[in-house]
Write a structure and sequence with these properties.
Elements (H helix, E strand, L loop, with lengths): L1 H23 L3 E10 L5 E9 L1 E3 L2 E2 L6 E8 L11 E6 L2 E4 L2 E7 L2 E12 L2 E12 L12 E2 L6 E6 L12 E6 L5 E2 L5 E7 L5 E6 L5 E3 L5 H5 L5 E9 L5 E9 L8 H25 L5
């Protein structure tokens, strides 16, 4: 009996240690900041590169991270003629505490921002897609500093809802290319992604089915109360080989429908139906056919 109890305690201790290591393991992620339009019509978006605590209460210092931008003019879901252009260029940090990137565009573009930094000698990656709605007619297009695809690990993300307005309650499907995602043993065998908040807190995990990860962000009452344009980040994190990680930041808006009071709506509909029936009855009684 003592042997069984000891084995059980060691087993639980191992699970707890693994969970703690996964929750506190380092990673980097993008966090969007202010967005707006400059006086000349160019769109501007600020993003910062965040880093999770490596040791409780401390942040891992980052040497200058690499950053590449994949820019797609006239994104595919708005193209009527199939024309558009995709090219790569190097990003330029505007500050280092935290690492901050300012992206500007004179036209409507989709920008995929990729970053790579080393933590304790291991590569960590971050990715986000941003939409910039520029409309500057008198500003020449800047196409300098073009480069080649850095071939870093990459997420492909699709939403079951509107592409241009991702929101809670929509299912997101993710493929992860590059390095293989982390894996669990035991009852949760298989590859998995961590789901984290905008502050980097672990909130959930999802497991792959046929190399596809699916996750539906729950409706958020606080987000629903925050206004029509309110949004929040959902961070997907894949653990890669040799202790590295790759993340994808997905911004989700509040649901268009979750805040509706269905019972109240049905009550209003029923009342309107009854009142319309009474009105029709009164009109028929009042208007008599000619003799």
């Amino acid at each position: 009996m003592k042997v069984i109890i000891l084995f059980f305690m060691l087993f639980l201790g191992g699970i707890s240690a693994n969970a703690s290591e996964g929750e506190n393991a380092p990673f980097i992620w993008w966090l969007p900041g202010a967005a707006g339009r400059l006086p000349d019509g160019r769109a501007e978006q600020v993003v910062t590169l965040e880093v999770s605590p490596v040791i409780a209460g401390q942040k891992s210092p980052l040497e200058r991270p690499g950053v590449w931008l994949r820019i797609t003019t006239r994104p595919v879901f708005l193209r009527a003629d199939g024309k558009g252009e995709t090219f790569w260029c190097k990003g330029d940090w505007s500050s280092s505490d935290p690492w901050t990137l300012i992206i500007r565009s004179d036209e409507y573009v989709a920008v995929d921002a990729f970053a790579m930094a080393e933590i304790e000698g291991r590569p960590h990656f971050a990715q986000i897609q941003l939409m910039l709605y520029g409309n500057a007619k008198d500003v020449a297009n800047e196409r300098e500093g073009r480069g080649e695809d850095p071939a870093w690990p990459e997420f492909q993300v699709r939403s079951s809802g509107e592409t241009y307005w991702p929101q809670t309650g929509h299912e997101f499907s993710l493929n992860f290319s590059g390095e293989k995602a982390g894996s669990h043993a035991g009852s949760h065998a298989g590859n998995y992604l961590e789901i984290r908040s905008g502050q980097g807190e672990l909130v959930d995990e999802v497991y792959s089915t046929e190399n596809v990860y699916r996750y539906t962000p729950a409706h958020d009452p606080a987000l629903n109360r925050a206004g029509d344009a309110a949004s929040k980040p959902v961070i997907f994190v894949a653990r890669t080989g040799e202790g590295g990680a790759a993340s994808y930041t997905q911004m989700v808006h509040r649901s268009r429908y979750a805040g509706w009071n269905k019972n109240a709506g049905l009550g209003v509909f029923a009342a309107a139906f009854v009142l319309s029936g009474l009105a029709v009855g009164l009109v028929r009684k009042k208007v008599q056919p000619c003799a």
